[in-house]
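Protocol step 4 of 6: structure prediction from sequence.
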Amino acid sequence: MKSSIHRFCLALFILMTILSAQIIVKYYLSYNDFIRGTDVRPAKVAGKSFLRAEYQKNLIRRLDFIEPDGNISQQIQFYYNSSGDLQVKDVFNRDSLLISRTTYYPDDIQKQLIEKIEGRGWIPTQSDYLTVTSFDSLHRPILNEVQTAGGTTVGRINREYNERGDLIRETWTKGENDRMLTRTEFNFDYANEILYVIQYDSLNREVSWVALPFSETKPDSTSK
């Protein structure tokens, strides 16, 4: 009898595990409906613009913005940690190119930027800040924007590239007044394979100058 009960409980546990891992698809007529959780039957979205959402373990995993002709105009993918907390949100355009990434956990960009603004006493927590990164058509990061949980911009990192795709300028600014914190210029001497790195402070004064060989250089002050 105990053996039968044990087998039944095991089978029930396996079934519940399988069901919890299944992907559930829901359809919405607008983004506001998605926010409210007002979904409709698939037949209701035929020939219309609509949103298609995929859920797994009651968490939104993917959201497609679909045009009346059936093509996807935008896609958002969501990633979580083992506790179910949202960690990353990626937004793709109609050509499946990543156009923005939002990280909801303390990252190195937040740490460096906020330390420049508030000092080294800042201790990161997940609820404090988020980082929104925007990319160009070549998947290069062109803007990092650190925001508070309430949506206020704390600071920005703007990046510019030359025609060869090399980073040539990186500017860090404070969000509330767009005041420059620091700027780094990367000047390439391609003929001699020398990179000149010049850094300026908030008053636009040169504070450092260094020459480096190409092959050993990755010009991005947020990289380690």
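Step 5 (inspection) to follow. Residues 22-96 form one domain.
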